[in-house]
Structures are given as structure tokens and as C-alpha cells.
Design brief:
The chain is mainly alpha-helical. It is about 60% helix and about 5% strand. The longest helix is centred in the middle third of the chain and has 15 residues. This is HTH luxR-type domain-containing protein.
């Protein structure tokens, strides 16, 4: 399993908002993106992490400790895995 290097800060913000229980439509509004764009990005993350559902995506994100703290900041571990710059 490898995290796709194309995951970016928007993907991590989507994951943090999903963790907070927001719907795809609400996430889209918060990030000024379309509902379908959010759904496509979530599907891409599921493919990248090798999981087949949203629940499994959440478990994998938790297992890999990709999100930190309450604010959804990207962890150093996630930055290393994805090659993100500060």
C-alpha cells in the first residue's frame, strides 16, 4: 500500500471534514468545490489507500495517523509519505 503522491492539502482538509461528520455537499461548500469533485477526490483517496469504502478510508487514515489534532493539520508522517511541503 502506498499513498499516492498526488494527495495534497485539499485531500487532507477533505479527510478532516469527513472526520467531523460533514456531508460531501457541505465539504464542497466549505472548500469552494463542487459536490461531485469532492466525491471524485474521496474515491481517488480510497483507491490510493487500497480500501473499498468510506468507513474503511476513515479506519486507514486513523491507522496511518494521517490527521493530527482537532484542526486537521497534516502530520509530519503524512507529509513524509506524500512529499508535501510546508
Amino acid at each position: 500500500m502506498a499513498i499516492d503522491e498526488r494527495m495534497d492539502d485539499v485531500d487532507f482538509r477533505i479527510l478532516a471534514l469527513m472526520r467531523d461528520g460533514l456531508s460531501d455537499a457541505t465539504i464542497g461548500r466549505r472548500l469552494s468545490r463542487g459536490h461531485r469533485t469532492i466525491q471524485r477526490r474521496i474515491c481517488h483517496m480510497m483507491d490510493s489507500l487500497g480500501v473499498s469504502g468510506r468507513f474503511a478510508l476513515g479506519l486507514k487514515v486513523a491507522e496511518l495517523n494521517l490527521l493530527a489534532g482537532q484542526d486537521g493539520a497534516v502530520t509530519a508522517h503524512a507529509r513524509e509519505l506524500t512529499g508535501l511541503q510546508r
